[in-house]
């Protein structure tokens, strides 16, 4: 008899696309769809109509990647809507600044969601309460990470509550170590916003200016020309190939920030890169 292989599910829900926020909320579900997390459901009016009765019934937690309103602003309204249906999810957040938070995970704390194992990776910088969630399906080997406004495809978030040093730690130590090297090439990245196209434009203008300079960037650029949605299509290994914020020792990145001698600290390169991106 054939064993049916079912997969973990990630449903991306667009929010605030008409007003330029281009945010994503995600419904992460176990293979049998009996257990789900609803991640960053900031806009109740946009998220609730995207969920059917079955999906709502299985939501065990509302989860925030950080406290900004365009990620956490729907916590209370969605918890209230679910409560009317007899569903009482936990509200897992990086800090009590997120409205309605009931659980604050420690760095590397793990949760079980049906057959999925989820590791909380605390990545302070964009906000001090930023958390990335690394989910793993031991049966199928599928893996993904929800990175909020810490890691974007070909970019990273602004340093609102942190430093270049902290962003280097967040991206290049905490995320990479938390996921661990053998998993980099199979871990799909689900960021908090669809910023890929503008990130690619920045990387192309500022760093790898010619096609052929970075083959992975060429591929990503082509993908963005043909597709509006890039979330979930690229892995951590892809990021390591084209994301300058994860390539701080690449001579092309050092050149771009004016460090031809290669003598700047990584934190300094990170700060310079972020400033260049901010001013574009
Ligand atoms: Zn944010």
TrEMBL record:
SMART domains: Lactamase_B (SM00849). Residues 22-193 form the Metallo-beta-lactamase domain. Its cofactor is Zn(2+). It is an enzyme of class 3 (hydrolase). Its EC number is 3.1.2.6. Pathway: Secondary metabolite metabolism; methylglyoxal degradation; (R)-lactate from methylglyoxal: step 2/2. InterPro entries: Clx_II_MBL, HAGH_C, Metallo-B-lactamas, RibonucZ/Hydroxyglut_hydro. One of its GO terms (molecular function) is metal ion binding. Pfam families: HAGH_C, Lactamase_B. Keywords: Hydrolase, Metal-binding, Zinc. It catalyses: (R)-S-lactoylglutathione + H2O = (R)-lactate + glutathione + H(+); an S-(2-hydroxyacyl)glutathione + H2O = a 2-hydroxy carboxylate + glutathione + H(+). GO terms for biological process: methylglyoxal catabolic process to D-lactate via S-lactoyl-glutathione. Belongs to the metallo-beta-lactamase superfamily. Glyoxalase II family. Thiolesterase that catalyzes the hydrolysis of S-D-lactoylglutathione to form glutathione and D-lactic acid. Involved in the metabolism of methylglyoxal, a toxic compound for yeast proliferation, by converting methylglyoxal to lactate via S-D-lactoylglutathione by sequential enzyme reactions catalyzed by glyoxalase I and glyoxalase II. This is hydroxyacylglutathione hydrolase. It comes from Lachancea fermentati (Zygosaccharomyces fermentati).
């Amino acid at each position: 008899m054939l064993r049916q292989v079912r997969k973990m599910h990630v449903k991306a829900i667009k929010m605030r696309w008409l007003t330029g926020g281009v945010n994503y909320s995600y419904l992460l579900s176990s293979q049998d769809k009996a257990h789900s997390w609803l991640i960053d459901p900031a806009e109740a009016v946009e998220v609730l109509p995207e969920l059917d009765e079955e999906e709502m019934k299985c939501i065990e937690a509302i989860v925030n990647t950080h406290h900004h309103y365009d990620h956490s602003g729907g916590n209370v309204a969605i918890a209230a809507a679910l409560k009317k249906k007899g569903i009482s999810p936990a509200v897992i957040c990086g800090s009590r600044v997120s409205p309605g938070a009931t659980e604050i995970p420690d760095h590397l704390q793990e949760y079980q969601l049906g057959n999925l194992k989820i590791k909380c990776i605390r990545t302070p910088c964009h906000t001090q309460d930023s958390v990335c969630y690394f989910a793993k399906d031991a049966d199928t080997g599928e893996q993904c990470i929800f990175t909020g406004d810490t890691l974007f495809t070909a970019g990273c978030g602004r340093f609102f509550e942190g430093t270049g040093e902290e962003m280097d730690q967040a991206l290049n130590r905490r995320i990479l170590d938390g996921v661990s090297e053998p998993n980099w090439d199979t871990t799909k990245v689900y960021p908090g916003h669809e910023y890929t196209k503008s990130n690619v434009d920045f990387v192309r203008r500022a760093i790898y200016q010619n096609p052929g300079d970075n083959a992975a960037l060429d591929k990503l650029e082509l993908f963005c020309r043909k597709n509006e949605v890039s979330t979930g299509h690229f892995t951590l290994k892809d990021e390591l190939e084209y994301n300058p914020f994860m390539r701080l020792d690449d001579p092309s990145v050092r050149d771009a920030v004016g460090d031809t001698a290669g003598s700047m600290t990584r934190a300094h390169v990170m700060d310079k890169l972020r400033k260049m991106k901010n001013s574009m």
